Structure formats: structure tokens, C-alpha cells
Amino acid sequence: MKRSSTVLKSTFSSHRGSGILAHITSLPSPYGIGDLGFSSHAFLDFLVCAGQRYWQFLPTGPGSPVFDNSPYMSTSAFAGSPLLISPELLLEEGFIEANSLSNAPVFSEYSVDFTQVGLFKKKIMEEAFTNFSLQLPQFINFKKNTPWLNDYTLFMVLKEQFHNQGWGEWPVMIATREPATLSALRIEHYDRMEYFAFEQYEFFRQWQIMRTKAKNENIQLIGDIPIYVGWDSADVWANQEIFQLDPRSLNPTHVAGVPPDYFSKTGQRWGNPLYRWQSKDPDIQKRLTEWWTARFRAVFEIVDIARIDHFRGFEAYWSIPENEETAINGKWVKGPGNAFFNKIFAVLGPLNIIAEDLGDITPEVSELRDSLGFPGMKVLQFAFDDNPDNPFLPHNYTSSECVVYTGTHDNDTTVGWFLSDYLSPRQRQRIKKMTNQNDDNHSSIHQDLIYLAMASIGRLAIFPLQDILGFGNDCRMNSPGTREGNWAWRCAPRFLTDSLSSWLQDITILFGRCPTKYQPPETPTS
Fold first, then answer.
1. Please, which residues have CB within 8 angstroms of residue 329's CB and are 6 or more apart in sequence?
2. Best CATH choice for the domain 4-510 from the list 2.60.40.10, 2.30.30.100, 3.30.390.50, 3.20.20.80
């Protein structure tokens, strides 16, 4: 029996809507990176003024400099990034002194220097910890009711102790989690584990303040669930049995990625360890289901809707031998499919999920998505390949149960894409005709594609903030297949203007995507 009606209604109800894709790190802030404090609150105000109902962002876990601080290669699938903790809210709580902020470094408005930001945030978090009461009932309750926290905090302490070495290089009794050894370590490092627990307590405290404001403003938060986790993470270290690891080296035997595609001629070798979906051991299957159930539960405690990144991996995944340098010599292996999600639904009930169904999508993947009732994605940058039957062309949509994007975090900005070598002059001319713009002026191409998406039958339309602003490829968030120079883009505060929100509000109203009984807020006076 299909679950579509239940799941889809709980996700989008019956109303058309629109929103903005902007990672929290990209928001304006005086302290080098967007955070959960005033920068997020101000962006929620911007969304309200612009008539938007959704805010989508990337994964919010702790990043690693080894992987260019990618949010898709986190040290934990459950923890929050301490870089997103707001210094201003720490000051409000009395945990830090005002001069700790007045003496902050001068940060760039346009990009995140993760090293500089990390050093600054670490300094103020250490100060806040010295002024925090570990006997606070809320903190004690947080530790008691956060099952992943014990492994995560010990993992972070050990990363410090072993100078950020990968956990497979730690002493064997620690790497293999010998129980007596771990017990001794927890006693020895209890105080430092409390610090990392405080980081997580403060992250989720600030998150809930932000989420409460979003709810009060009728803004739904769309999070992101990467299908894979990083090998050098608390998740893999604490759950080695459910991943494809070599029992001797503890390294992955096979890693994740995708075959050659639009983004890369050699495919993408992500390097994440694969799950043991093919194991015949019922205990392994049980642990896999329990781990994923806990992961979905944790995500939906902080967001309203979640996008599953690389959804097609649940139907079949690209398995690359670990010793291969590219993704070319991988192969497709059958994933857990419908039965897996039914087990999750049996525990958690219907889930508000968007399936990222881009790339090499087979009829089997589409069937799995539809049987689960998950809306898929339509990306306009993929629509103009001279194929009149291209399913990404808005006039070819066969169902309103989809999410329409101009582009994603993996795409170039719309302006950058339109002016790049990806398109021929003839394709550019056709795109302009499709939007009823026959002149040679390309300055409005981002607005033209936003117009197409807004006018489509797709229930939800989402636009990267860079496309709202009309920025070029120097503001691209990520270039798949590259390991440097990604994830750092920031929006300076002067770009989020009243005239921009007014334009977006007007087009949102025009195509019936504003909240029910929407009343435009009064424009604040400066």
C-alpha cells in the first residue's frame, strides 16, 4: 500500500509555498560566520518580509579542516557545529565578557575563514565554560536524554589527545573500543568531556530559541540528511559493525560516490564508508535500523522537513573499492529499499521528507520515491539540454508533488551557469524565449528562472540566496569533485535590502505562494 497521501499532506499540506536555500554559515554576522543568534533571527525576519514560508540549509554538524569543512563530511551525524553558536547569545547569558567581543578579530564579510573563526569561537567557548554551572538542571537533563553524547564527547577528547589523528591510528585498544579501556578513559577525561557536552548543550539551546522564532513566524525549517557519514567520525568509531570496514586496518573496504555524470567525467569518489546493507547477520540489520531511526528522530527534533541527500542510494548505491583513486571502477549494489523505510515509519510515523533524486535516476529509484510518497526535486539548470521531453522543464511536470529549484548548493549560481561554457548561444537564446525575454540583456536571468519556478505547478519552490541576489560564480557554494575553496561564501548585510524583499514578496503573491491570509508586514524604518 502506498503512503503518499499521508506523508505528502503532512509535509506541505495543500498550500503552494516558496523559500530560500541559505546555509547558516553564509548569513551576515560580525563574527566571521553566520550563527544561531541575531544573524539567523534577522534572516527569519527577512523571510517574513519577503513572504517566504521555508528556510532550507545544509547539514549543521561539526566540520573538519581535513575535508575543507564540508558539512557533508562531519565528525558526527548527531552533534551540532560549535561554530554556529552565537557569541551574542553567550553574552546575553552572562557566560562571556563584553570585551571578549569588542576585541574580536576583523572578519571578512564575504567568506568564512574557518581557521580564524574556529580559533575565535574556541576561545570564547572556553571562557563561557568557565562561567557555566555544570549542576544546572537543564544541563544534567540534556546529558541524560542525549544517548549519542557520551561517545561523541569521548571521541572529541581523544581527537585532541592524539593531535587530530584518524581514529584508526589510535592505540588498538582504543580504536577497537575495548570496554575496560573506554571506562578508564571516561574517568580520566571526565572534565574535558564535560566541556564538549557544554558545547552541544549550548548549540541545541540556541537552536530551540531560533526554531521557536521560526514557528512563531510561520517559517518551516528544511534540514539536510547526508546519506553517508565521514569515516573519521564518532558515528563510525562507535558503530564499526554496521560499516564496511577492514577488521585489521579499520579502514573502509569500499567507499561511496557516484559514477561519471554532469558534474565530473571521472565521477565523484566521496570516500565515505558504506553501510553493511548486504549483511545476512540479523544483529547487524537490527543495529543499522536502530542507528538510522535514532538519526531520523534527532533530525526531526530540530527541523520540520528534511531533504535526504543522495536518496537514490537507498535503492542502489555506487560501491568503489577503497584503493581506487576515482569513481570510474565502482559498481551498483542493491540498497535496503522500501522495507527499510517501513521499519522507520513503524517507530516514528510519517516523516516530512524531500528525496534528492538527481543524477543517474532509474525507474526503480522513482518507484521507491513514489511508493514512499516523498516529493522529488526539479532543478531548472538541468532543464535546458535541447531535449523537449526533459523532465526538469516546467511544462513537462506531471505532478505538483515536487520541489522546484533554480539550482542547489552543488550547482553554479544561475548567473554563473548562464554565462559559462555549459551553455551554447543557442541554448541561452532558448532559455530567454522560455521566459518570454527576447532581448540580449542577461542581467535578469536569475529573476527569469525564479519566475519560471514560481509559475510552475510544483508545490514548493526553493531558491539559493545567491540566485535571489543575482550573484555570479565567484559566490558558488560548492564545486563537486574539488576539495578546496568550497563552503565559504557569505552574504554581506547590505545585500538583504527592503527592495529585494519587496520584489520577492510581489512575485510570491503573484503566483499564490504566500502563507494563507498573508498580510505583508510593515517595512521597518531605519
1. 320, 321
2. 3.20.20.80
Triad 60, 161, 129: Cα angle to 5° = 55
Per-residue pLDDT of 71-104, as tens digits, reads 999 999 999 999 999 999 999 999 999 999 999 9
Choose among 397, 388, 478, 468: nearest CA to 63.
478
**What's the pLDDT tens digit per position in 273-290?**
999 999 999 999 999 999
To the query of whether residue 304 is one of the catalytic residues in this protein, the response is no
Q: Which of these is catalytic: 232, 410, 412, 467?
A: 410
Which grid cell is 436?
A: 518570454
Q: Which of 356, 401, 412, 467 is catalytic?
A: 356
Rounded to 5 degrees, φ, ψ at 431 are -60, -45
23, 24, 28, 34 alpha-carbon torsion, rounded to 10°: -140
Decide if 235 is catalytic.
Answer: no
**pLDDT tens readout for residues 23-56:** 999 999 999 999 999 999 999 999 999 999 999 9
Angle made by CA atoms 98, 103, 108, in degrees to the nearest 5: 120
DSSP sequence for 182-205: HHHHHHHTHHHHHHHHHHHHHHHH
Interatomic CA distance for residues 39 and 56, integer angstroms: 15
Q: Please say whether the beta carbons of 414 and 30 come within 8 A.
A: no
93 catalytically annotated = no
Catalytic residue among 309, 322, 357, 467: 309
- Taking the CA atoms of residue 347, residue 151, residue 75 and residue 202 in that order, the dihedral angle to the nearest 10 degrees is 90
Q: Any idea where the domains of the chain sit in the sequence?
A: 4-510
C-alpha cell at 49: 518580509
In 301-441, alpha helices (H): 337-348, 363-372, 414-418, 425-434
